[in-house]
Amino acid sequence: xxxxxxxxxxxxxxxxxxxxxxxxxxxxxxxxxxxxxxxxxxxxxxxxxxxxxxxxxxxxxxxxxxxxxxxxxxxxxxxxxxxxxxxxxxxxxxxxxxxxxxxxxxxxxxxxxxxxxxxxxxxxxxxxxxxxxxxxxxxxxxxxxxxxxxxxxxxxxxxxxxxxxxxxxxxxxxxxxxxxxxxxxxxxxxxxxxxxxxxxxxxxxxxxxxxxxxxxxxxxxxxxxxxxxxxxxxxxxxxxxxxxxxxxxxxxxxxxxxxxxxxxxxxxxxxxxxxxxxxxxxxxxxxxxxxxxxxxxxxxxxxxxxxxxxxxxxxxxxxxxxxxxxxxxxxxxxxxxxxxxxxxxxxxxxxxxxxxxxxxxxxxxxxxxxxxxxxxxxxxxxxxxxxxxxxxxxxxxxxxxxxxxxxxxxxxxxxxxxxxxxxxxxxxxxxxxxxxxxxxxxxxxxxxxxxxxxxxxxxxxxxxxxxxxxxxxxxxxxxxxx
Length: 482
Hints:
By secondary structure, this protein is mostly helical. It starts with a helix and ends in a 29-residue tail after the last helix. The protein has helices spanning 2-34, 37-77, 83-110, 142-163, 170-193, 197-201, 209-227, 244-261, 272-301, 306-321, 329-352, 361-379, 402-433, 442-446, 448-453. Helix content is 67%, strand content 0%. It has 15 helices and no strands. It has a single domain (41-439), classed as Ammonium transporter fold (Orthogonal Bundle), CATH 1.10.3430.10. It is globular, with a radius of gyration of 28 Å.
């Protein structure tokens, strides 16, 4: 009897639990079925914005990390007596650019221009007012866009420091770095990426072969020419790099950072296929440039040249930066191959012109930036182009009407070169008149690190000179009772 009662109690308890579970299940199903569609769409939109924002920040962090790569590459390729100066110039460039980009540069580059197509007039001093403001036609906020584009802006003046290394007045470096981020780089950025006149005309530059690299390379060439060569410069022969290990690490960081530079320029993950194509083309361009320069230098010298191979990879990266979203992978290989040869030819021409460019900044960024820009007019796939009047137009080798796109690409490149030459000449001319372009001749004797900073990157091997103005004699402690 007791056993029967226990059995019935168990059956009743199981039935009650089953009813309770069924009620909860029905309630959950009813809630799902009656959930308003608008709330679900809002959730999806919020998730999309969050994903795109995370992507832009992540890739922006990679682009900012490229400052480390530039610092290491430049420092490794120059002489040890100038290493501290190069490191400090690259380091403070980020801080200085951030301030002037926040105050003026971002507004000129990406603010509304009221139809002029020349420069923006809004978004100066972005603040809390832009916290919830979405940048036009994107799923990211104005403040997110500010950071990503700041990382790009810092690159332009960093390119210039390499060509002008070892002999530029430090105050002059601060002035020209600020001016580049205030009125040279932002204007070109607005023309192309701020819906300015070049974008309207159909000019394409996906991630900056023109906006960043041609601008930086041309300014660098003008600066190096007006600055004059380093003391003791032997034409046709570069002083040996003091630390190729550092230069190699810097280049590898730059290659890594380029995966933020190019794929990040999609400004979102709404089209994963495009992100994949850009990443593939970036990789192939870098690889082709690296291997081409390696073998060309071997054919010239009979030696496997590390420094040449490093610049070859960067040449391929620079060249493929503009067309990476508009071309087939085979075209990226061709573009990288040409860049690997062009970087050597351009470096030779700069040397023959008696312009001292210690790191080959113009050859890598200027010459290959121009080539990458023009290559869109040769290899662009019609279904991938989108800018202005040339939307849906292909390149000369991929469509019947390719001349029109090639012409617009040439127009944009030439216009950028002219603007940068004129503004850079004015800027460096003013610094020269102020006595702030080239460091004092004393620095040539004792080294710019000693003269400007009073320290050495290798103090045990290369101690500071006592006659450096930055090295003060120790003050004798007063005797007791004085």
